Amino acid sequence: MSVQEKSAAGKGAIAGAAGGDTIAAVSSGRGGAVAVIRLSGPAAGDVVLALAGRVPEPRRAVLARLRHPDSGEPLDQGLVLWFPAPRSATGEDMAELQIHGGRAVVAAVLGAVLAVPGTRPAQAGEFTRRAFLNGRMDLTEAEGLADLIGAETQAQRRLAFSHAFGHLGQRVEDWRHRLVRAMALVEAGIDFADEDDVPAEARALARPEVEALQRELAQALGDRRGAMVREGALIAIAGLPNAGKSSLINALAARDVAIVSDEPGTTRDLLEVSLDLDGHKVMLVDTAGLREAEGKVEAEGIRRARARIAEADLVLWVHDVAAGPAPDEAPEMEAPAELWLVGNKLDRGAGGESVAGRWAGRSFAVSARSGEGLDVLTRALGGFVTDRTAGGEHPALIRERHRASAAEASAHLGAALAGWEELDDALLAEELRLAARALGRMTGAIGVDDLLDVVFREFCIGK
Ligand SMILES: Nc1nc2c(ncn2[C@@H]2O[C@H](COP(=O)(O)OP(=O)(O)OP(=O)(O)O)[C@@H](O)[C@H]2O)c(=O)[nH]1
User: pTM above 0.90?
Assistant: First the structure.
């Protein structure tokens, strides 16, 4: 079979879901010794034939000299891989050229690839978009892949990995299938309305399943672990002016990121630093000293600080041990999720005294200046994030998009359950259908054209 015939056969199998162009891009990062050029689309085989002189056996790396298709000039020697449709990452004919990573080599080979008719440069995320359109992955897997590529910490990598390889998608599809079964039962009431005993019985059978789904959705919505791993646990550093908040952040971040000065009220705005703490992403937020503001700017800083403290997973209340005994509790604060006391400036005062009351077991003594006590605090922070993100199954919902879909589904299930006895069959079935639709949008099984640009623009070119 010629390459063209092979390509045509492959294209038939995938019903041309992503259009007829063949896309090409450098998929490896800059500056490596080896560069990878990927191709996807019906002309991928033509390109390999034109540059390498032959198309290798599927999925076998073959060393080949690559020439310009027009001039015949040798450009480089490298490995060529051929993945005919539909067993390829995108579901289309694909090829990969592994060549030397030099700038001129890459430019020459990519130029030669794009000289073959029917090829064009790929847009960001276009390979993955084609994989989605050809049914090789669902939308949550595509998002997981974006997160896997962007993962900065090991916890993010682990979460993204399970997400990229179907964990979330399977759970959502399971919910949706159960919901569709419940809906079929309710609809049986519509179809057999003239048979007296069917409607009531079918409804009664569907109800426990809908209740169970509602419970599972509520539990998934209440689980913040996914967001905490992906976006980082938010740790706010609060305290009176001059307590050493900025110095503590600098010491924890081991770099000078916050302005440190001995003039109270220096931190007028919020400064956020992202850290990798024991493999977990943590966002440290330096908040303006909470006190009666002297100026408008400082007042605004304090307002923002309070808002951020209210959303924090943990607040470290920094206290200057040289300024007197630790307060019994943090002054002027709405109760945050969790509050620890950090007695700072240990180098200047006693300070290490045990603290009772609400701080017991959650107080630390450090010196941001000398570094004393910081190792204990850092370990405790790592332990806090590990505790909050570990355990049980992988979180079901990771992004805001997932939460919004799940919340929408849950609202429809709530409406269905609230009206279970009164609603007529058609209205009840409609609530269940809308809930199933909201879940379907999460995996991309249903009506997501409007979402694709948003999801795939996160990717880099070549992925
Ligand atoms: N001796 C000593 N001085 C410290 C320590 N930490 C901070 N300081 C000093 O305390 C002063 C205030 O420190 P900052 O880090 O700016 O305090 P802040 O809480 O961020 O202050 P505001 O921005 O005004 O709210 C500076 O002069 C620091 O050098 C410490 O551990 N020991």
Answer: no
